[in-house]
Design goal:
Blueprint (H helix, E strand, L loop, with lengths): L21 H40 L4 H49 L17 H22 L2 H15 L1 H6 L4
Family: Belongs to the G-protein coupled receptor Fz/Smo family.
Keywords: Developmental protein, Membrane, Receptor, Transmembrane, Transmembrane helix
Protein name: Frizzled-realted
Length: about 180
């Protein structure tokens, strides 16, 4: 018979690799969550440099750039909406990483009192407990990243495309346009 240890987030109950130990939190979450957005930021910056060059050439030629500028504004806006919650999430994970050992020592001291076994003597300033608000911020930031990504997809054109698709499924559009039935 094998014993399977489940590691889940303390507050949400969701399985979470960061709850194994401090090492797994760093290796499987913090390092990738710092490296990949950094690489993405470099590509984003390179893309903006290219778009500004294209815009400059277009303006020099006398071509209208309003659509390109709207696209640049949209990319910048949604990049900010994506990057800010990502940074908040990583900051919350760093908070856990740096305080994890102290929290575990404090929890072990509390448990030995509960089970009436000898406890190590408490040290000065040992009352370090996790901040509930930071954990809630972590959950909000992790959800906001996905919400922001989905908002990019739901533009007016996307909604119109889905309306047309639904009309085709119901057979309405083919008859209204006089197309093939």
């Amino acid at each position: 018979m094998t014993i399977v240890r489940q590691h889940r987030d303390v507050l949400s109950g969701v399985c979470f690799v960061g709850q194994l130990d401090k090492h797994s939190l760093a290796m499987f979450l913090l390092i990738p969550l710092v490296i990949y957005p950094s690489i993405g930021g470099i590509f984003l910056l390179a893309g903006f440099v290219s778009l500004f060059r294209i815009r400059t050439v277009m303006k020099h030629d006398g071509t209208r750039t309003d659509k390109l500028e709207r696209l640049m504004m949209r990319i910048g806006f949604f990049s900010g909406l994506f990057i800010l919650p990502s940074l908040g999430y990583v900051a919350c994970l760093f908070y856990e990483y740096y305080n994890w050992d102290d929290w575990m020592i404090q929890w072990n001291r509390q448990m030995c009192k509960v089970f009436s076994i000898p406890c190590p003597a408490p040290r000065q300033g040992d009352e370090n407990k996790p901040n509930f608000h930071i954990y809630m911020l972590k959950y909000v930031c992790s959800m906001l990243v996905g919400v922001t990504s989905s908002v990019w997809l739901w533009s007016g054109k996307t909604v119109e495309s889905w309306k047309q698709f639904a009309a085709r499924l119901q057979g309405k559009e083919a008859r209204s346009r006089g197309a093939f039935v």
